[in-house]
Amino acid sequence: EKAVNLKKDLAEMQEWMTQAEEEYLEKDFEYKSPEELENAVEEMKRAKEDVLQKEVRVKILKDNIKMLATKVPSSGQDLVTELNVVLENYQLLCNRIRGKCHTLEEVWSCWIELLQYLDLETAWLNNLEERVQMTGSLPDKFDVVNDALESLESVLRHPADNRTQIRELGQTLIDGGILDDIISEKLEAFNARYEELSHLAVSRQITLEQQLQTMRETDHMLQVLQESLGDLDRQLTSYLTDRIDAFQMPQEAQ
């Protein structure tokens, strides 16, 4: 009777493993939204816990069958053979579920990381847009224009590492068919805004540089003119001091 019960327990265990495999490993998942992906991760975590909890039952079953095989070799040997098959299938199921759970957790981590990098770069784009707008109407003063240019250039020196991470993480998920529509839409919007603002910022940078160059040239011309007028003023003052008649002066002095 004990052998019959143990045989029944083995059959039930095998049936449970078959159902678990169908439910957790053979089902086709389509992760088209973050909610679906997150639910799949949580489901696989529960599946892993469920399978590992059966480890106690498997051990008890193993001990009982080996004990029976020791006491009644004729009845226990067949059960030992069946037990070995069940143990092998159980270990395989554990490994596969652990592997799938780990994979889904990695995918979810990849998605969260992508969102974090997008947030960082979006904040940078907002800052860049603000700096560009601030350069739109500046007073014609050298210090003001120079400060605006330096401020804009400091933002433009932002490293490209985050954008590289965004591209690689996004492509990895898209290649796996995971959240591909959502990610493609996010990347397209981000890249379009990045290109637009970058070109606008570089164009504004060139304009400010040209404005500064013009101001430098104008300032130099005014300085030269001021020096020339100073020389002329001193020369005319000396003529007046010496009471020289205008018609005795050079033509330009007259």
UniProtKB/TrEMBL annotation:
The record ties this protein, via Pfam families, to: Spectrin (PF00435)
The highest taxon in the source lineage is: Eukaryota
What keywords does the record list, in alphabetical order? Coiled coil
Task: Note the coiled coil stretches, chain numbering.
Answer: 3-64
Gene3D superfamilies noted in UniProt: 1.20.58.60
InterPro entries for this protein: Spectrin/alpha-actinin (IPR018159), Spectrin_repeat (IPR002017)
Protein name, as recorded: UTRO protein
Q: Which organism is it from?
A: Elachura formosa (spotted wren-babbler)
